[in-house]
Amino acid sequence: MVTEAWIVKMRNQVSANLKQALLLESPSAKKPSLPKQTIGILSFEVANVMFKTVHLHRSLSDAEISKLKSDVFRSEGVRNLVSSDENHLLHLAVSEKLDDLSRVASVVSRLGKKCSEPALQGFEHVYEDIVNGAIDFRKLGFLVKDMESMVKKMERFVNATCSLYSEMEVMNELEQAIVKLQRSQQHQESVKAFEQKLMWQRQDVRSLRDASLWNQTYDKVVEMLARTVCTIYGRIETVFGKKDSTLKRDRSKNGASKLVDSRSVSGFKDSRRSEAEEFTSAGDFSFPCGTNPGRMFMECLSVSRTNDDDDDDEDEDVEKEEGNVVSDEAAGDVSRLQAKRPSPIEVLDRVKINHTKETPRSTIKGVLQGSKSSELKFSRDNLRKIEEKLRRAFVEFYHKLRLLKSYSFLNVLAFSKIMKKYDKITSRHATKSYMKMVDNSYLGSSDEVMRLVERVEATFIKHFANANRTKGMNILRPKAKRERHRITFSTGFMGGCVFSLVVALFAIIRTRNILQEEGQQQYMNTMFPLYSLFGFVVLHILMYAANIYYWRRYRVNYSFIFGFKQGSELGYRQVLLVGFSIGVFALLCVIANLDMEVDPETKDYEAFTELLPLILLIGMFIALVLPFNIFYRSSRIFFLTCLFHCFAAPLYKVTLPDFLLGDQLTSQVQALRSVQFYICYYGWGDFKQRKNTCGDSDAYNAFFFIVAIIPYFSRLLQCLRRLFEEKNVEQGYNGLKYFLTIVAVFLRTMYSVQEDNQFIWRILAGIFSAIAAIFCTYWDLVLDWGLLNRTSKNRWLRDKLLVPQKKVYFIAMILNILLRFAWLQTVLDFNFSFMHRQTMVAVVASLEIIRRGIWNFFRLENEHLNNVGKYRAFKTVPLPFNYDEDDDKDN
To answer: Over the stretch 778-788, which tens digit does the pLDDT of each residue have?
Structure first.
């Protein structure tokens, strides 16, 4: 691949040299070429003209013309306000297009005055001849053959110039800030920091100038625009007809009047003739096609300008458009180069494609066949996967380079502040000499990082962004997500609605004395488990929102640890909005259900009232799996992916979000049982009579146990997967913890379901539950949180703490122990006269969710500080290839 690119580059260079030698230089006299002027500050005006040119070209596409004739011309407004005559409307459309084109041509002719090629200086005469029909440009070879490639190239220039304008504004602000700081003669450390930042900004501006129109020559830009203008004129003639009377009438009016002001056609011809005589008598150059300026310009355009230093590799697609005049000697040289092309590089024989065991298929194949790298096969699927991995690798590498640059900037600023404080205390003036040493060190003046940044940007934009700088930089530098006021307002509004609905619900229950009615027991056994599911979900969402708030407050890098895509992570306000929205709909359904039962007019519609929870659950499921880009689509996809990985364990490689979501599911056992109750209650038709006959079914009781152990069994399989891959004994002990929990849940379930041998089941459930609770508590405090370290400088805690109040950690440990043993209620049968059994189950489940929310904060804090899970010491992206060096070792 490298050799092929080198041969193509050499072939283009040989072709360019031969063209220059044969066509652009006179054999008798060879004059030294003068340096060509660059666009410079006029690049912004040229970018505006290019944008208008691209817009004009696209307005002449087949789809736009068809829309113009079928929709615009036949619309009622146009027929009533303008005209119903299609020929007259066509005349107006042609006039508008020619006016726009003539404005562009006038700018091109003005820029052509600064070109070094005399033929480009006379573009106004060429365009005048074309418009007046004096030249049949179809017989000439200077039109753009692939207009789409030319348009893409112009769009790249426009986007790069826009980015240059923005970066230059930032650079100007930095320069002004430095001047103000220097005048105040204070904050010298800030001056140093701003100067360092200004240096980096100038490097960015310098690279953008090379990619934009700023450093392009007048000859190159005017030639590009001139060819495009003539091609667009040909497109206008093709679309509206060569023999169209409208186009003939507009030729003289839109040609001479726009370019030559008020000169008559005869005067214009006389002046053109005199200028042609001047060109002939000048003797500075020779053109093989005569002295007519139009002919000179066409010959100038028909010759490829590949000798221009600004025509780099990205212009190779445009070279296909240009009429290539290559001699037989050049063709012979190119053919000889192609004949001598070497065979593929030997290194490719040792390159293998890495296949990480990330899918069920790859996992099974890896277990059966062993971990072997596959051969290098350039299939479409392999190339797509390789491209995606390389894209991720480039993005992560670029992000690390930016972090390294920020690290350098912050350290230089820190040195400056330290020295300022030192000078203030010791009354010495050591800052200047010491900071000079810092600036000359690698920390302050190393250009290697900037060169790497520029190389990564150039490579990524060229190969992964279709040479579109704006698109590439948006991927490399995603903008930070901005908090919107409407999110804050919506969150507050929904929170107020939840509070109001809760008050209304208690008022309805109190005033109508619903708890004392005969159907209270029936309602608690049927409808309460259905609605409690939404309560569990909302409570868990609120705890997660609180976690995000405190993670941000104490600077826990949770988005990096979870692997969220930058800019797509949800803030605590968005999470609160989701939780409050679900709470509002759930409370509305509860109140509507109670109201319809009490109201005599709607009391007979029991079947419909029973369907309200099911309708709400289906609506939540649809909103969760909705494929459209609404309702936080990226976050929903991330959640569903992790959820699928949890249920498909151990067929997927275990990542931190996967096992952390598995831990959350272990605290939602009662919610999973509520889903099982939904299936039984509505699937078996109990909702029609509001009866709960699910407990009488052996299948329901069996699944009552299976559903409860699914989260723990999933975590057990994840631990076994990590034990198998990482050979870490600690994962084996972690799996043992979940195995003991599965046994304890099984025994507690058997105790609550079986009516025989209650005492034996109770004793066994108590013993295993106590062992599991003690084991889990120790694991939480010591391994997950990293606390209870006697040798730590923070006694019984750990060395690194983010929360300054140490008592918070002790309170959290006590709460974790108390809430861990909330399961005692299921074994000891705590009964309260004022609380129904289903209410007690919901309270215990809610306490477990609260405990999990507290656990989440300290677990991620410990991961952030100590990387206890050995996941995120630094973020690595596996490359798609590896190189087998065994052969090299043998040599």
So the answer is: 999 999 999 99
Q: Model pTM greater than 0.70?
A: no
d(CA 803, CA 809): 8
Instruction: Characterise 788 by phi-psi region: left (phi > 0), alpha (psi -120 to 50), beta (else).
Output: left
Cβ atoms of residues 228 and 149 within 8 Å: no
Retrieve residue 1's tokens: 């691949």
d(CA 97, CA 234): 12
Quick check: 799 pLDDT over 70?
Answer: yes
Contacts of 125 (CB under 8 A, 6+ apart): 272, 275, 293, 294, 297
- Round to whole Å and give the CA distance between 40 and 214: 5
Q: How far apart are CA 887 and CA 389, in angstroms?
A: 27
- Measured distance CA(886)–CA(849) in Å, rounded: 54
Q: Is 404 exposed, middle or buried (0-12, 13-18, 19+ CB in 10 A)?
A: middle
Residues 399 and 511 in one domain: no
Entry field: residues in the chain: 891
Residue 663 confidence (pLDDT): 94
Q: Are residues 168 and 220 in contact, defined by beta-carbon separation less than 8 angstroms?
A: no
Q: Report the C-alpha gap between 865 and 872 in whole angstroms.
A: 10
Paired tokens of 518:
């005969």
584 and 455 housed in the same domain: no
User: 275-308, pLDDT tens digit by residue?
Assistant: 333 333 333 333 333 333 334 444 444 433 333 4
Lowest-pLDDT range, 145-159, 624-638, 761-775?
Answer: 145-159
Per-residue pLDDT of 453-464, as tens digits, reads: 888 988 888 888
Any long-range contacts for 361-365 (C-beta under 8 Å, 24+ apart)? Answer: 363/650, 363/651, 363/652, 363/653, 364/651
Instruction: Decide: helix, strand or coil at residue 186.
Output: coil
Asked if 251 and 135 touch (Cβ cutoff 8 Å), the reply is no
Do both 61 and 85 map to the same domain? yes
The dihedral built from the CA positions of residue 803, 808, 813 and 818, taken in this order, carries a sign that is negative
Convert 189-229 into a string of H (helix), E (strand) and C (coil).
Answer: HHHHHHHHHHHHHHHHHHHHHHHCCCCCEHHHHHHHHHHHH
Residues 466 and 509 in one domain: no
What are the residues facing 352 on neighbouring strands?
Answer: 882
In a shared domain, residues 59 and 131: yes
Amino acid letter, residue 574: Q
Q: What is the pLDDT of residues 103-138, one digit of tens each?
A: 888 888 888 888 887 777 777 777 777 777 776 666
CB of 419 within 8 A of CB of 430?
yes
Closest CA to 845 of 535, 589, 543: 535
Same domain? For 571 and 441 the reply is no
pLDDT for the residue 515: 62
Question: Which residue type, as a one-letter code, is found at position 795?
Answer: R
Residue by residue, DSSP assigns 407-433 as HHHHHHHHHHHHHHHHHHHH----HHH
What tokens were used for 407? 């690290």
Q: Domain for residue 886, yes or no?
A: no
Question: Are 47 and 161 spatial neighbours (Cβ–Cβ below 8 Å)?
Answer: yes
Distance, CA of 181 to CA of 188 (rounded, Å): 8
Domain count within the chain: 3
Domain containing 577: what range? 485-870
In a domain, residue 24? The reply is no
Residue with tokens 């000048």: 282
Residue 882 DSSP SS3: strand
690: left (phi over 0), alpha (psi -120 to 50) or beta: left
Cβ(632)–Cβ(574) below 8 Å: yes
Q: Measure the CA–CA gap between 803 and 373, rounded to whole angstroms.
A: 46
For the chain, give the longest Cα–Cα distance.
120
Taking the CA atoms of 649, 655, 659 and 662 in sequence, report the sign of the dihedral they define. Answer: negative
With a cut of 70, say whether residue 374 has pLDDT above it.
no
Copy the structure tokens of residue 448.
Answer: 């290697």
Q: What is the pLDDT of residue 891?
A: 40
Residue 10 gets which letter from DSSP?
H
